[in-house]
Amino acid sequence: ARKAQVGDSAAIPEMEAWARRALQLDGRSSQAWGALSYAELRRQGGSRRTAFDFALKAAFFGPQDALAQTNLGGMLMGSSCVSAIEAFSEASRLDPLYLNASVSAAVVLDLLGRRAEALASTDQVLRLEPDAPAAVLNKAKWLTGPAGAREQTETLKRLEGMVAQNRLNQRWLAFVKDLVAIERGEAVASQTALDRVLKVAGGESRFP
User: Fold this and answer.
1) Whether the predicted model's global pTM rises above the 0.85 cut
2) Distance between the two ends of the chain, CA-based, in angstroms?
3) Which residues does the chain have with pLDDT short of 50?
């Protein structure tokens, strides 16, 4: 039988079972509450409200847990970008080498229209981990205009290399290339890309 992996839907029941056992031993385990939040988000029919409640408990019981603070920031992104950034910043303060918090903070900064800050945060991540796939992916999306065109092309080539090494899903690369084509206004290519992106936004196609 195929072994379940983290992120695989088959692993969710195992994760939930582990978390429930851990909470029987320690009801204040931030790791266990965080695992329940993750599982709730990813299992079929899961409740985002319940996942948010679990994430709040993880952060409350784990004030020194960078992962718990990062997960809370992720849950807050849909309701308060400012609060999300605060949670990500706290996670980075607790563990400067836990780069997911900085990557996520950069995404929120871009959502707020603060792209220069988002790129600066991303560059800081890449100084610590030059091949961090999520950071390279975001940089490819955010380098715009004539000044960034050359670096954007080079960054896309880096992503192609990551796909070839099975470090990045091909669908993410295709999605980013569509966004770049739209941004550059590449005639027919941009219209085709726009059609694909709109299908994803409308739920007609699977999001990477």
Assistant:
1) no
2) 26
3) 1-7, 207
Are 102 and 124 in contact by the 8 Å Cβ rule? The answer is: yes
pLDDT of residue 42: 87
Q: Return the half-sphere exposure (C-beta side, CA atoms, 13 A cut-off) of residue 86.
A: 6
User: Which 3-state string (H, E, C) describes 121-157?
Assistant: HHHHHHHHCCCCHHHHHHHHHHCCHHHHHHHHHHHHH
Q: What is the pLDDT of residues 21-48, one digit of tens each?
A: 999 999 999 999 999 999 998 888 889 9
153-168: b (≥16 Cβ within 10 Å) or e: eebbebbeebbeeeeb
Distance (Å, whole) CA 118 – CA 112: 10
- The H-assigned helical ranges of the chain are 12-25, 30-42, 48-61, 66-76, 81-94, 99-111, 115-128, 133-142, 145-164, 170-184, 187-201
Task: For 82-111, write each residue's pLDDT tens digit.
Answer: 999 999 999 999 999 999 999 999 999 999
Phi (first) and psi of residue 168, to 5 degrees: -145, 135
| CA pair distance 86, 171, nearest whole angstrom | 31
Other beta carbons within 10 angstroms of residue 118's beta carbon come to 22
For the chain, the residue count is 208
Q: Token pair 């031993």 is at which residue? A: 25
Which residues are CB-contacts of 75 (< 8 A; sequence separation ≥ 6)? 37, 48, 51, 52, 55, 56
